[in-house]
Amino acid sequence: MGLKQCKMEIVELNCRFCNSSLKHIFADLGKTPLANSYLNSDNLEKPETFYPLKAYVCENCFLVQTDEFEKPQNIFEEYAYHSSFSKTWIHHIQEFVMNTIKRFKLDEKNHVIEIASNDGYMLQFFKNNGIPVLGIEPAKNIAKIAEEKGIPTISKFFGEQTASEVISVKQKADILIAFNVLPHVPNLLDFVKGLKKLLNDNGVLIIQFSAYLSQMIEKTEFDMIYHEHFSYFSLFTLQKIFSHCDLDIFDVEEFTIHGGSLRLFIKHKNNQTISLKTSVSKQLKLEEKFGIPKLITYENYQDHIINIKQNIWTFFKQIKNESKTIVGYGAPAKANTLLNYCGIGTDFLDYTVDLDPYKQGLFLPGTGIPIFSPEKISETNPDYVVILAWNLKDEIIEQLQFIRNWGGKFIVLIPEVEIIS
Protein backbone atom coordinates (compact mmCIF):
# COMPACT_ATOMS: atom_id res chain seq x y z
CA MET A 1 0.00 0.00 0.00
CA GLY A 2 1.09 3.56 -0.63
CA LEU A 3 1.95 6.03 2.10
CA LYS A 4 -0.82 7.89 3.83
CA GLN A 5 -1.34 11.56 3.12
CA CYS A 6 -3.50 13.27 5.72
CA LYS A 7 -5.56 16.39 5.05
CA MET A 8 -5.26 19.01 7.80
CA GLU A 9 -8.27 19.07 10.07
CA ILE A 10 -10.38 22.23 10.23
CA VAL A 11 -10.95 23.07 13.89
CA GLU A 12 -13.61 25.77 13.71
CA LEU A 13 -16.88 24.24 12.51
CA ASN A 14 -20.43 25.55 12.46
CA CYS A 15 -23.68 23.62 12.13
CA ARG A 16 -24.76 23.36 8.49
CA PHE A 17 -28.36 24.10 9.48
CA CYS A 18 -28.49 26.57 12.39
CA ASN A 19 -24.87 27.84 12.15
CA SER A 20 -24.17 27.20 15.85
CA SER A 21 -20.57 26.42 16.78
CA LEU A 22 -19.92 22.66 16.89
CA LYS A 23 -18.25 21.86 20.20
CA HIS A 24 -19.35 18.31 20.94
CA ILE A 25 -17.74 15.27 19.26
CA PHE A 26 -20.19 12.42 18.71
CA ALA A 27 -17.72 9.96 17.19
CA ASP A 28 -14.01 10.07 16.37
CA LEU A 29 -13.02 7.34 13.91
CA GLY A 30 -9.45 8.45 13.29
CA LYS A 31 -8.30 9.11 9.74
CA THR A 32 -9.67 7.28 6.72
CA PRO A 33 -9.80 7.70 2.95
CA LEU A 34 -13.10 8.54 1.29
CA ALA A 35 -15.28 5.45 1.66
CA ASN A 36 -16.07 5.16 -2.05
CA SER A 37 -12.57 5.92 -3.35
CA TYR A 38 -11.92 2.34 -4.49
CA LEU A 39 -8.45 1.60 -5.84
CA ASN A 40 -7.41 -0.08 -9.06
CA SER A 41 -4.18 -1.99 -9.64
CA ASP A 42 -2.50 1.11 -11.11
CA ASN A 43 -2.96 3.30 -8.03
CA LEU A 44 -2.75 0.57 -5.38
CA GLU A 45 0.82 1.48 -4.47
CA LYS A 46 0.36 5.22 -4.78
CA PRO A 47 -0.16 7.45 -1.71
CA GLU A 48 -3.76 7.70 -0.55
CA THR A 49 -5.29 10.76 1.03
CA PHE A 50 -6.65 10.16 4.52
CA TYR A 51 -9.05 12.62 6.16
CA PRO A 52 -10.07 13.02 9.81
CA LEU A 53 -13.41 11.26 10.29
CA LYS A 54 -15.26 12.96 13.13
CA ALA A 55 -18.97 13.43 13.65
CA TYR A 56 -20.21 16.31 15.77
CA VAL A 57 -23.58 16.97 17.38
CA CYS A 58 -25.06 20.47 17.43
CA GLU A 59 -26.17 21.49 20.91
CA ASN A 60 -28.89 23.70 19.43
CA CYS A 61 -30.68 21.61 16.75
CA PHE A 62 -29.08 18.18 17.49
CA LEU A 63 -28.06 17.61 13.90
CA VAL A 64 -25.18 15.10 13.81
CA GLN A 65 -22.74 15.95 11.03
CA THR A 66 -19.27 15.50 9.60
CA ASP A 67 -17.05 18.13 8.05
CA GLU A 68 -16.94 18.68 4.28
CA PHE A 69 -13.40 17.82 3.15
CA GLU A 70 -14.26 17.16 -0.48
CA LYS A 71 -16.85 18.80 -2.69
CA PRO A 72 -19.76 16.55 -3.70
CA GLN A 73 -18.68 16.99 -7.35
CA ASN A 74 -15.43 15.17 -6.52
CA ILE A 75 -17.28 12.33 -4.80
CA PHE A 76 -20.48 11.66 -6.69
CA GLU A 77 -19.90 12.49 -10.38
CA GLU A 78 -18.43 8.99 -10.82
CA TYR A 79 -20.08 6.82 -8.20
CA ALA A 80 -19.59 3.20 -7.17
CA TYR A 81 -23.04 2.38 -5.76
CA HIS A 82 -25.73 0.78 -7.93
CA SER A 83 -29.12 0.28 -6.29
CA SER A 84 -30.27 -2.59 -8.49
CA PHE A 85 -27.97 -5.29 -7.10
CA SER A 86 -29.83 -5.98 -3.85
CA LYS A 87 -32.93 -8.17 -4.07
CA THR A 88 -33.95 -7.03 -0.58
CA TRP A 89 -33.83 -3.36 -1.59
CA ILE A 90 -35.62 -3.89 -4.91
CA HIS A 91 -38.44 -5.76 -3.16
CA HIS A 92 -38.71 -2.90 -0.66
CA ILE A 93 -38.92 -0.41 -3.53
CA GLN A 94 -41.50 -2.38 -5.53
CA GLU A 95 -43.73 -2.47 -2.46
CA PHE A 96 -43.26 1.27 -1.94
CA VAL A 97 -44.14 2.08 -5.56
CA MET A 98 -47.33 0.04 -5.55
CA ASN A 99 -48.44 1.50 -2.20
CA THR A 100 -47.69 5.03 -3.43
CA ILE A 101 -49.69 4.56 -6.64
CA LYS A 102 -52.62 3.23 -4.64
CA ARG A 103 -52.49 5.76 -1.78
CA PHE A 104 -52.22 8.86 -3.98
CA LYS A 105 -54.29 7.47 -6.89
CA LEU A 106 -51.56 8.06 -9.45
CA ASP A 107 -52.11 7.65 -13.18
CA GLU A 108 -50.80 8.93 -16.52
CA LYS A 109 -51.87 12.49 -15.63
CA ASN A 110 -49.39 12.65 -12.75
CA HIS A 111 -45.66 13.33 -12.84
CA VAL A 112 -43.12 11.55 -10.61
CA ILE A 113 -39.63 12.98 -10.18
CA GLU A 114 -36.88 11.28 -8.19
CA ILE A 115 -33.79 13.05 -6.87
CA ALA A 116 -30.66 10.86 -6.86
CA SER A 117 -32.47 8.35 -9.04
CA ASN A 118 -29.37 6.15 -9.41
CA ASP A 119 -29.70 3.55 -12.17
CA GLY A 120 -33.48 3.91 -12.54
CA TYR A 121 -34.12 1.12 -10.03
CA MET A 122 -37.29 2.85 -8.71
CA LEU A 123 -38.62 4.93 -11.57
CA GLN A 124 -38.82 1.87 -13.83
CA PHE A 125 -41.70 0.57 -11.70
CA PHE A 126 -43.64 3.83 -11.96
CA LYS A 127 -42.99 3.90 -15.70
CA ASN A 128 -44.20 0.31 -16.08
CA ASN A 129 -47.49 1.47 -14.58
CA GLY A 130 -47.88 4.19 -17.20
CA ILE A 131 -46.84 7.11 -14.99
CA PRO A 132 -44.55 9.80 -16.50
CA VAL A 133 -41.19 9.96 -14.71
CA LEU A 134 -37.99 11.98 -14.56
CA GLY A 135 -34.77 11.16 -12.76
CA ILE A 136 -32.16 13.64 -11.52
CA GLU A 137 -28.83 11.87 -10.86
CA PRO A 138 -25.41 13.54 -10.43
CA ALA A 139 -23.30 10.43 -11.19
CA LYS A 140 -22.86 10.44 -14.95
CA ASN A 141 -21.86 6.75 -15.13
CA ILE A 142 -25.03 5.70 -13.31
CA ALA A 143 -27.34 8.18 -15.08
CA LYS A 144 -26.22 6.61 -18.36
CA ILE A 145 -27.44 3.20 -17.16
CA ALA A 146 -30.84 4.68 -16.29
CA GLU A 147 -31.10 6.28 -19.73
CA GLU A 148 -30.34 2.92 -21.33
CA LYS A 149 -33.31 1.53 -19.40
CA GLY A 150 -35.52 4.18 -20.95
CA ILE A 151 -35.68 6.38 -17.84
CA PRO A 152 -35.32 10.06 -18.79
CA THR A 153 -32.55 11.36 -16.54
CA ILE A 154 -30.88 14.73 -15.98
CA SER A 155 -27.31 14.31 -14.79
CA LYS A 156 -26.88 17.24 -12.41
CA PHE A 157 -26.47 17.95 -8.72
CA PHE A 158 -29.73 19.05 -7.18
CA GLY A 159 -30.48 22.35 -5.50
CA GLU A 160 -32.50 25.49 -6.14
CA GLN A 161 -30.79 26.21 -9.46
CA THR A 162 -31.40 22.73 -10.87
CA ALA A 163 -35.01 22.88 -9.67
CA SER A 164 -35.50 26.13 -11.59
CA GLU A 165 -33.97 24.61 -14.71
CA VAL A 166 -36.26 21.57 -14.53
CA ILE A 167 -39.35 23.74 -13.99
CA SER A 168 -38.47 25.83 -17.06
CA VAL A 169 -38.70 22.80 -19.37
CA LYS A 170 -40.84 20.29 -17.44
CA GLN A 171 -43.88 20.39 -15.21
CA LYS A 172 -43.50 20.27 -11.44
CA ALA A 173 -43.68 17.04 -9.47
CA ASP A 174 -46.95 15.65 -8.14
CA ILE A 175 -44.84 13.06 -6.32
CA LEU A 176 -41.26 14.10 -5.56
CA ILE A 177 -39.03 11.36 -4.18
CA ALA A 178 -35.61 11.53 -2.50
CA PHE A 179 -34.46 8.17 -1.12
CA ASN A 180 -31.09 7.81 0.64
CA VAL A 181 -29.80 11.15 -0.62
CA LEU A 182 -30.42 13.64 2.20
CA PRO A 183 -27.41 12.44 4.29
CA HIS A 184 -25.20 13.05 1.23
CA VAL A 185 -26.09 16.75 0.96
CA PRO A 186 -23.70 19.32 2.50
CA ASN A 187 -25.85 22.36 1.65
CA LEU A 188 -29.07 21.26 3.31
CA LEU A 189 -31.06 24.46 2.97
CA ASP A 190 -30.30 24.88 -0.74
CA PHE A 191 -31.36 21.27 -1.31
CA VAL A 192 -34.61 21.54 0.67
CA LYS A 193 -35.48 24.87 -0.98
CA GLY A 194 -34.97 23.15 -4.32
CA LEU A 195 -37.37 20.39 -3.28
CA LYS A 196 -39.96 22.98 -2.24
CA LYS A 197 -39.63 24.80 -5.55
CA LEU A 198 -40.02 21.62 -7.62
CA LEU A 199 -43.04 20.30 -5.68
CA ASN A 200 -46.50 21.02 -7.08
CA ASP A 201 -48.82 23.08 -4.86
CA ASN A 202 -50.81 19.99 -3.85
CA GLY A 203 -47.92 17.58 -4.39
CA VAL A 204 -46.29 15.18 -1.93
CA LEU A 205 -42.59 14.97 -1.18
CA ILE A 206 -41.45 11.54 0.07
CA ILE A 207 -38.02 11.26 1.68
CA GLN A 208 -36.41 8.12 3.07
CA PHE A 209 -32.97 7.80 4.62
CA SER A 210 -30.93 5.17 6.44
CA ALA A 211 -28.67 5.79 9.45
CA TYR A 212 -31.75 6.93 11.36
CA LEU A 213 -30.13 8.50 14.39
CA SER A 214 -31.92 6.72 17.25
CA GLN A 215 -31.31 3.31 15.64
CA MET A 216 -27.73 4.22 14.81
CA ILE A 217 -27.08 5.11 18.45
CA GLU A 218 -28.98 2.20 19.97
CA LYS A 219 -27.23 -0.41 17.79
CA THR A 220 -23.86 1.39 17.68
CA GLU A 221 -23.88 1.38 13.87
CA PHE A 222 -20.77 3.55 13.75
CA ASP A 223 -19.75 2.19 10.35
CA MET A 224 -22.61 4.23 8.87
CA ILE A 225 -20.39 7.26 9.48
CA TYR A 226 -18.20 8.19 6.51
CA HIS A 227 -17.20 11.37 4.71
CA GLU A 228 -19.80 10.97 1.97
CA HIS A 229 -22.49 11.02 4.70
CA PHE A 230 -22.47 14.66 5.73
CA SER A 231 -25.46 14.49 8.13
CA TYR A 232 -27.32 12.01 10.37
CA PHE A 233 -30.92 12.78 11.12
CA SER A 234 -33.68 12.49 13.67
CA LEU A 235 -37.30 13.45 13.02
CA PHE A 236 -36.84 16.12 15.71
CA THR A 237 -34.18 17.90 13.67
CA LEU A 238 -35.78 17.35 10.28
CA GLN A 239 -39.01 18.90 11.45
CA LYS A 240 -37.04 22.07 12.25
CA ILE A 241 -35.31 22.03 8.86
CA PHE A 242 -38.46 21.52 6.77
CA SER A 243 -40.52 23.94 8.84
CA HIS A 244 -37.83 26.56 8.24
CA CYS A 245 -38.54 26.13 4.50
CA ASP A 246 -42.35 26.25 4.91
CA LEU A 247 -42.82 22.52 4.48
CA ASP A 248 -44.76 20.24 6.86
CA ILE A 249 -44.05 16.59 7.64
CA PHE A 250 -47.55 15.07 7.72
CA ASP A 251 -46.79 11.34 8.03
CA VAL A 252 -43.84 9.16 9.01
CA GLU A 253 -42.97 5.46 8.79
CA GLU A 254 -40.03 3.58 10.32
CA PHE A 255 -38.41 0.54 8.69
CA THR A 256 -35.71 -1.91 9.72
CA ILE A 257 -34.11 -1.94 6.24
CA HIS A 258 -30.50 -0.69 6.01
CA GLY A 259 -30.11 -0.88 9.77
CA GLY A 260 -33.02 1.45 10.50
CA SER A 261 -34.65 3.86 8.06
CA LEU A 262 -37.22 6.62 8.33
CA ARG A 263 -39.68 7.61 5.60
CA LEU A 264 -41.22 11.09 5.65
CA PHE A 265 -44.28 12.36 3.78
CA ILE A 266 -44.12 16.13 3.32
CA LYS A 267 -46.39 18.85 1.92
CA HIS A 268 -46.37 22.59 1.45
CA LYS A 269 -47.29 24.32 4.71
CA ASN A 270 -50.21 26.13 3.04
CA ASN A 271 -51.63 22.93 1.53
CA GLN A 272 -54.83 22.35 3.53
CA THR A 273 -55.96 19.31 1.49
CA ILE A 274 -53.71 16.93 3.47
CA SER A 275 -54.15 16.45 7.21
CA LEU A 276 -51.44 15.73 9.75
CA LYS A 277 -51.22 12.07 10.84
CA THR A 278 -50.75 11.03 14.46
CA SER A 279 -47.66 9.05 13.39
CA VAL A 280 -45.60 12.25 13.50
CA SER A 281 -46.34 13.11 17.14
CA LYS A 282 -45.92 9.45 18.15
CA GLN A 283 -42.48 9.26 16.53
CA LEU A 284 -41.44 12.54 18.13
CA LYS A 285 -42.49 11.21 21.54
CA LEU A 286 -40.42 8.06 20.96
CA GLU A 287 -37.40 10.22 20.10
CA GLU A 288 -37.95 12.38 23.15
CA LYS A 289 -38.12 9.28 25.36
CA PHE A 290 -34.93 7.98 23.71
CA GLY A 291 -33.23 11.31 24.47
CA ILE A 292 -32.68 12.78 21.00
CA PRO A 293 -33.00 16.41 22.25
CA LYS A 294 -30.50 15.86 25.10
CA LEU A 295 -26.70 16.12 24.79
CA ILE A 296 -26.16 13.34 27.33
CA THR A 297 -27.59 10.85 24.80
CA TYR A 298 -24.61 11.49 22.50
CA GLU A 299 -21.84 11.64 25.10
CA ASN A 300 -21.10 7.93 25.56
CA TYR A 301 -21.27 6.84 21.93
CA GLN A 302 -17.50 6.93 21.48
CA ASP A 303 -17.01 4.57 24.43
CA HIS A 304 -19.34 2.03 22.82
CA ILE A 305 -17.44 2.32 19.53
CA ILE A 306 -14.10 1.69 21.23
CA ASN A 307 -15.53 -1.36 22.98
CA ILE A 308 -16.78 -2.84 19.70
CA LYS A 309 -13.43 -2.14 18.03
CA GLN A 310 -11.61 -4.03 20.78
CA ASN A 311 -13.97 -6.99 20.49
CA ILE A 312 -13.58 -7.11 16.69
CA TRP A 313 -9.79 -6.95 16.89
CA THR A 314 -9.65 -9.66 19.56
CA PHE A 315 -11.96 -11.90 17.53
CA PHE A 316 -9.97 -11.59 14.29
CA LYS A 317 -6.70 -12.21 16.10
CA GLN A 318 -8.10 -15.32 17.74
CA ILE A 319 -9.38 -16.73 14.44
CA LYS A 320 -6.05 -16.10 12.70
CA ASN A 321 -4.17 -17.74 15.58
CA GLU A 322 -6.23 -20.83 14.80
CA SER A 323 -4.95 -20.65 11.18
CA LYS A 324 -8.49 -20.22 9.84
CA THR A 325 -9.22 -18.40 6.58
CA ILE A 326 -11.50 -15.36 6.63
CA VAL A 327 -13.02 -13.54 3.65
CA GLY A 328 -15.66 -10.86 3.32
CA TYR A 329 -18.95 -10.46 1.53
CA GLY A 330 -19.76 -7.00 0.28
CA ALA A 331 -17.75 -3.88 -0.50
CA PRO A 332 -20.07 -1.14 0.80
CA ALA A 333 -18.91 2.24 2.05
CA LYS A 334 -19.70 1.21 5.62
CA ALA A 335 -17.17 -1.63 5.38
CA ASN A 336 -14.39 0.82 4.61
CA THR A 337 -15.14 2.82 7.74
CA LEU A 338 -15.19 -0.31 9.88
CA LEU A 339 -12.08 -1.97 8.44
CA ASN A 340 -9.95 1.19 8.49
CA TYR A 341 -10.99 2.15 12.01
CA CYS A 342 -10.48 -1.36 13.37
CA GLY A 343 -7.17 -1.91 11.54
CA ILE A 344 -8.38 -4.94 9.60
CA GLY A 345 -6.47 -5.39 6.34
CA THR A 346 -5.19 -8.23 4.17
CA ASP A 347 -3.36 -9.67 7.15
CA PHE A 348 -6.77 -10.73 8.48
CA LEU A 349 -9.15 -10.65 5.50
CA ASP A 350 -7.90 -12.43 2.37
CA TYR A 351 -10.42 -10.77 0.06
CA THR A 352 -14.04 -9.67 -0.19
CA VAL A 353 -16.66 -10.24 -2.90
CA ASP A 354 -19.44 -8.12 -4.34
CA LEU A 355 -22.26 -8.66 -6.83
CA ASP A 356 -21.64 -5.29 -8.47
CA PRO A 357 -19.33 -5.81 -11.50
CA TYR A 358 -18.26 -2.16 -11.17
CA LYS A 359 -16.40 -3.00 -7.94
CA GLN A 360 -14.99 -6.38 -8.97
CA GLY A 361 -11.26 -6.19 -9.72
CA LEU A 362 -10.84 -3.12 -7.51
CA PHE A 363 -9.42 -2.82 -3.98
CA LEU A 364 -10.91 -1.36 -0.81
CA PRO A 365 -9.50 2.08 0.04
CA GLY A 366 -7.06 2.24 2.92
CA THR A 367 -6.80 -1.52 3.42
CA GLY A 368 -6.08 -2.69 -0.15
CA ILE A 369 -8.33 -5.74 0.26
CA PRO A 370 -9.12 -7.11 -3.24
CA ILE A 371 -12.71 -7.39 -4.47
CA PHE A 372 -13.83 -10.42 -6.48
CA SER A 373 -17.11 -11.81 -7.76
CA PRO A 374 -19.02 -14.10 -5.33
CA GLU A 375 -17.88 -17.19 -7.27
CA LYS A 376 -14.47 -16.74 -5.62
CA ILE A 377 -15.89 -18.11 -2.35
CA SER A 378 -16.75 -21.52 -3.83
CA GLU A 379 -13.24 -21.67 -5.33
CA THR A 380 -11.39 -21.09 -2.04
CA ASN A 381 -13.68 -22.69 0.60
CA PRO A 382 -12.97 -20.20 3.43
CA ASP A 383 -13.67 -21.10 7.05
CA TYR A 384 -15.47 -17.82 7.73
CA VAL A 385 -17.34 -15.26 5.64
CA VAL A 386 -17.64 -11.83 7.28
CA ILE A 387 -20.85 -10.15 6.12
CA LEU A 388 -19.62 -6.59 5.65
CA ALA A 389 -22.95 -5.56 4.10
CA TRP A 390 -24.67 -6.56 7.34
CA ASN A 391 -27.86 -4.70 6.38
CA LEU A 392 -28.39 -7.47 3.77
CA LYS A 393 -27.47 -10.30 6.13
CA ASP A 394 -30.49 -12.54 5.45
CA GLU A 395 -30.20 -12.17 1.67
CA ILE A 396 -26.47 -12.98 1.75
CA ILE A 397 -26.82 -16.00 4.02
CA GLU A 398 -29.49 -17.40 1.74
CA GLN A 399 -27.27 -16.82 -1.28
CA LEU A 400 -24.25 -18.52 0.34
CA GLN A 401 -25.91 -21.53 1.96
CA PHE A 402 -23.36 -23.72 0.16
CA ILE A 403 -20.49 -22.69 2.50
CA ARG A 404 -22.01 -24.98 5.11
CA ASN A 405 -21.06 -27.93 2.86
CA TRP A 406 -17.44 -27.57 4.03
CA GLY A 407 -18.31 -26.31 7.51
CA GLY A 408 -18.03 -22.63 6.67
CA LYS A 409 -19.60 -20.09 9.03
CA PHE A 410 -20.85 -16.53 8.75
CA ILE A 411 -19.69 -13.63 10.89
CA VAL A 412 -21.57 -10.39 11.60
CA LEU A 413 -19.66 -7.59 13.37
CA ILE A 414 -22.38 -4.97 13.95
CA PRO A 415 -23.96 -4.39 16.48
CA GLU A 416 -21.74 -7.07 18.03
CA VAL A 417 -19.52 -9.93 16.92
CA GLU A 418 -21.72 -12.93 16.12
CA ILE A 419 -20.90 -16.30 14.52
CA ILE A 420 -23.72 -17.86 12.51
CA SER A 421 -23.25 -21.57 11.80
Automatic annotation (TrEMBL):
InterPro entries: Methyltransf_Zn-bd_dom_put, Methyltransf_Zn-bd_dom_put_sf, MeTrfase_14, SAM-dependent_MTases_sf. Residues 15-76 form the Methyltransferase putative zinc binding domain. The keyword Transferase applies. One of its GO terms (biological process) is methylation. GO terms for molecular function: methyltransferase activity. SUPFAM superfamilies: S-adenosyl-L-methionine-dependent methyltransferases (SSF53335). Residues 257-415 form the C-methyltransferase domain. It comes from the Archaea. Keywords: Methyltransferase, Transferase. This is Methyltransferase-like protein. It comes from Nitrosopumilus piranensis.
